[in-house]
Model the fold of this input.
Amino acid sequence: MSKSKKRFLSQLLSKIIKEFNEEENMNEIHKNVIEPVVKKCIRELYPYMICGIVTISVLFLLIISILVLNIKICYK
Done:
């Protein structure tokens, strides 16, 4: 890449970074890009989170019931 292209890209990148760092632009990016993406990800993952919580709860209850039954058998 030639020096002029590198200098141009460097200047362009620094201007873009400068614009992104302004408070008004940060708010716009947050409101119009980040929030919708996060909301969509949570909406898509929600069923899997519920399924995981239910699975862990059932496993926990099974472990507790097995332990109780083993204790009953041992001390009978």
User: Anything to note?
Assistant: The helical segments are 3-20, 23-74. The chain has one domain: 3-74. The chain is about 90% helix and 0% strand. Residues 3-74 form one domain.
